[in-house]
């Protein structure tokens, strides 16, 4: 284990010291190695991989097997970052024993340190059961993509006072249940700020403003690999899509023109 390995107590300390936490999604070994080398605190193997890597319309079809496959690759690459596996739809929606069984697979088979649960009515109860078993849990409230049908699309949550109060309550219940951190997704910055101040565990925002204890983005969004229109909260730090298209176009042109491989690229 690396000396500067990120741990759950270190993440809590960061909040106490006012130091921001960085989290990015990772789905494969190659990318995870780079994010780890760059010093990102948490690598989240998000179920967003269903949409980003596998071309699903939403995250609902993602299976445990798909999640474990990608989590294994990411965990192998992470020598510094803490790896969190995202519990896919229906992996924690039935019994507590199914929830413990599935979460345990992320830790035992895939090498994750913790799991993330999107909010459902009994999320706090399931969190407590996991924490009691020794499995660290990250919560996730607000715009929770697994509730896409109930929300009627990917919509910002907590704009109305009653909804905002409900989010504060959910966050408190996750903390009381033993969650070590919580993702706040798609909510007004003021609501996220109120939650962040009310909690002793770190909040990690996505589309939730600047006042969270940390920030997370889907890595392919920040690298400009999103084929459609990116949501408002995404900042594209580069545009890999353009760079890849240009490099691949050049390769195609050179092969078709009989220019590649030139002498320096073949064996005598
Ligand atoms: O699945 C995912 O990538 C996520 C993050 C956007 C928080 O849940």
CATH class of the largest domain: Alpha Beta
The structure class reads alpha/beta
Shape: globular
What number is the mean pLDDT?
A: 97
CATH hierarchy: architecture of the largest domain: Alpha-Beta Barrel
Distance N terminus to C terminus?
45 Å
Low-confidence stretches: none
Name of the CATH superfamily of the largest domain: Phosphoenolpyruvate-binding domains
What is the strand tally? 8
- At CATH level 3, the topology of the largest domain is TIM Barrel
Strand content: 5-15%
Task: Name some characteristics of this structure.
8 strands, globular, binds 3-methyl-2-oxobutanoic acid, alpha/beta, TIM Barrel, 2 domains, 268 residues, 11 helices
List the helices and strands and how they pair.
Elements lengths: L7 H10 L3 E5 L3 H9 L4 E4 L3 H4 L11 H14 L4 E5 L9 H13 L5 E5 L4 H11 L3 E6 L5 H4 L9 H17 L3 E5 L3 H10 L4 E4 L7 E4 L1 H4 L17 H17 L12
Parallel strand pairs: 1-2, 1-8, 2-3, 3-4, 4-5, 5-6, 6-7, 7-8
Helix pairs in contact: 2-4, 5-6, 6-8, 8-9
The structure holds 3-methyl-2-oxobutanoic acid (KIV).
Description:
- By secondary structure, the protein is of the alpha/beta class.
- The chain has 2 domains: 8-237, TIM Barrel (Alpha-Beta Barrel); 238-268, no CATH class.
- Helix content is 42%, strand content 14%.
- It contains 11 helices and 8 strands.
- The chain has an 8-stranded parallel β-barrel with strand order 1-2-3-4-5-6-7-8, surrounded by 7 helices.
- The mean pLDDT is 97.
- The structure holds 3-methyl-2-oxobutanoic acid.
- 3-methyl-2-oxobutanoic acid binds next to strand 6.
């Amino acid at each position: 284990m690396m000396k500067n390995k990120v741990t759950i107590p270190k993440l809590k300390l960061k909040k106490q010291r006012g130091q921001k936490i960085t989290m990015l999604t990772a789905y494969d070994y190659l990318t995870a190695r780079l994010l780890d080398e760059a010093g990102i605190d948490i690598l989240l193997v998000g179920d967003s991989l269903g949409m980003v890597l596998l071309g699903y319309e939403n995250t609902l079809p993602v299976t445990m097997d798909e999640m474990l496959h990608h989590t294994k690759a990411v965990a192998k690459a992470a020598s510094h970052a803490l790896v969190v596996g995202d519990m896919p739809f229906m992996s924690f929606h039935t019994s507590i024993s199914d929830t413990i069984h599935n979460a345990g697979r992320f830790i035992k088979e895939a090498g994750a340190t913790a799991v993330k649960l999107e909010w459902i009515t009994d999320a706090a109860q399931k969190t407590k059961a996991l924490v009691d078993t020794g499995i660290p849990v990250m919560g996730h409230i607000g715009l929770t993509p697994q509730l896409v049908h109930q929300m009627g699309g990917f919509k910002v949550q907590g704009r109305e006072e009653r909804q905002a109060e409900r989010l504060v309550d959910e966050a408190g219940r996750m903390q009381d249940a033993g969650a070590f951190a919580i993702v706040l997704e798609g909510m007004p910055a003021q609501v996220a700020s109120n939650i962040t101040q009310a909690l002793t565990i770190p909040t990690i925002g996505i589309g939730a403003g600047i006042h969270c204890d940390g920030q997370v983005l889907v890595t392919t969004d920040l690298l400009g690999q999103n084929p459609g229109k990116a949501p408002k909260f995404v900042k594209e730090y580069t545009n890999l899509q353009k760079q890849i298209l240009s490099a691949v176009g050049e390769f195609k042109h050179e092969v078709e023109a009989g220019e590649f491989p030139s002498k320096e690229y073949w064996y005598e």
